[in-house]
Design brief:
Blueprint: H1 12-38, H2 40-47, H3 51-58, H4 60-79, H5 82-101, H6 106-134, H7 140-168, E1 172-174, E2 178-180, H8 182-191, H9 194-200, H10 222-231, H11 233-255, H12 257-265, H13 269-296, H14 302-316, H15 329-357, H16 360-379, H17 381-394, H18 400-425
Antiparallel strand pairs: 1-2
Helix pairs in contact: 1-5, 1-6, 1-7, 1-8, 1-9, 3-17, 4-6, 4-16, 5-6, 5-8, 5-9, 6-16, 7-8, 7-13, 7-15, 11-15, 11-16, 11-17, 11-18, 13-15, 14-15, 14-18, 17-18
Length: about 450
């Protein structure tokens, strides 16, 4: 474990500017990630595709390239300047978001969406590694929640902005492309801000890395990193599996939420986008505000306490799987808010746990492995499983909400079981309140 003292961490005044940029990056990340789900119906109609193909654009397209290259990105986070990686990644996904809006068919959109996923795959490992070196451990939960609140704001805006653009019929006249449809205009406008934020990251001072000692292990080698994680498999496997299974339910439900509301209650995007955005904002920000204090409190202090907290969150999210039984839109949004509230608490507790149990030269790689597994299992599988259940098990597009039960319920219960197993496997390091680095 690290032997750094609090005095070795940068003073607060030096951490404010990078935190502001990380907040904005998380904001843009969520907008550009979530906009496809909100605009799924006009995209599906224009490209003349079914739910299963749309599920591929929502899931596999976003996760494929990031899954293939994710471990390499994690290695770069551990051994290169994170500010440069963030600058390049934000620029890449923003330009690719614009390309999504200008795509001329399914295959073009699929490729552009892969590049969005690749750019965003680098951000979480780099940002979380950076925060670990900007703040001492007892303040990291609140720092993580402050960063991730940006994601909640972005999730709300990913519904409100395209809903307003489509509802108002806003079109853009672009050189070479002419007049583009409102849904295309939404992609172009949402992607246009990112390159500026990316350039601003070049003004950030790279902090000194902390916690570099790991008993002499050469963690610069790829194989050594894998060996280190494997030595911790009794905790890492169920811990990561619990996270992935939670995200199967989360991504499967949230990617199709706008489509569900439109089909179940016969509404246009503009009719519910404001209310959906407000729900995402309140549940996300509320969850992150609570999560920072819970994670740093005596209840969630140390890895064992945080894993106990993680085990309860899939149960908190269960009402969202049953949103289709709600009598109206307001009740459905309240039920969907359950998983939106559990998600930020899970993110902060999970990320703080990874920071606790892994040394510095393993954090980027550890986050990348988590990102790889969740991208391939949850990011690709969640939306597609909901689409397959709707198309092939139910055979009725109007019953997409029933697919939330079919996919979400078993995934959340299995997530609870995995987190419980991880909690039983963990043991404290001698003379410390954290997990041993060898389990």
């Amino acid at each position: 474990m690290s032997t750094d003292t609090p005095a070795t961490f940068p003073p607060l005044r030096q951490s404010i500017w990078p935190m502001v940029l990380l907040f904005l990056a998380a904001n843009l990340y969520s907008i550009d990630k979530g906009i496809v789900g909100v605009l799924a119906e006009p995209i599906r109609r224009e490209f003349a595709i079914g739910d299963s193909e749309m599920g591929l654009l929502l899931g596999l397209a976003y996760s494929l390239l990031s899954g293939v290259l994710g471990l390499g990105l994690g290695w770069l986070v551990d051994h290169r300047k994170r500010r440069n990686l963030l600058a390049g990644a934000i620029t890449l996904w923003s330009v690719s978001t614009i390309a999504c809006g200008l795509s001329q068919g399914f295959s073009h959109f699929f490729i552009a969406r892969m590049l969005v996923g690749l750019g965003e795959a680098a951000v979480a490992p780099a940002a979380l590694s950076l925060i670990a070196d900007l703040f001492e451990p007892r303040h990291r939960g609140r720092a993580l929640s402050a960063y991730l609140i940006g994601a909640s704001v972005g999730s709300a805006l990913s519904s409100a902005i395209p809903g307003w653009i489509v509802g108002s019929g806003l079109v853009l006249d672009l050189p070479l492309f002419g007049t583009v449809a409102p849904w295309r205009s939404a992609f172009v406008l949402c992607g246009a801000v990112g390159p500026l934020i990316g350039l601003l990251f070049l003004t950030v001072r790279e902090p000194v890395r902390h916690g570099l000692s790991d008993g002499g292990a050469d963690l610069a080698r790829f194989g050594a990193k894998l060996d280190h994680l494997w030595s911790m498999r009794r905790v890492v496997v169920p811990l990561y599996a619990g996270f992935c299974l939670f995200y199967v339910a989360l991504v499967g439900i949230t990617a199709w939420t706008a489509t569900f509301l439109g089909r179940r209650y016969g509404l246009a995007i503009a009719d519910f986008s404001g209310a959906l955005g407000l729900m995402l904002l309140i549940s996300g920000m509320g969850g992150y505000l609570v999560s920072g204090f819970l994670s740093d409190s005596r209840l969630g202090r140390g890895s064992r306490g945080r894993i106990a907290l993680l085990a309860g969150l899939p149960l908190l999210a269960l009402p969202s799987a049953f949103a289709t039984f709600a009598p109206g839109v307001t009740a459905a949004l309240l039920m969907l808010a359950a998983i939106g509230t559990a998600m930020p608490i899970l993110n902060v507790a999970m990320n703080a746990t990874v920071q606790d149990i892994l040394p510095n030269r393993m954090r980027g790689f550890g986050y990348a492995v988590l990102g790889l597994s969740s991208a391939l299992i949850a990011g690709a599988g969640g939306p597609w499983l909901v689409a397959v259940a709707t198309d092939h098990l139910l055979g009725d597009p109007a019953r997409i909400g029933t697919s939330f039960v079919i996919v979400g319920l078993p995934a959340l219960l299995a997530s609870f079981a995995c987190f419980t197993l991880a909690g039983r496997a963990i043991r404290p390091a001698p003379g410390a309140g954290l997990v041993s680095s060898r389990i």
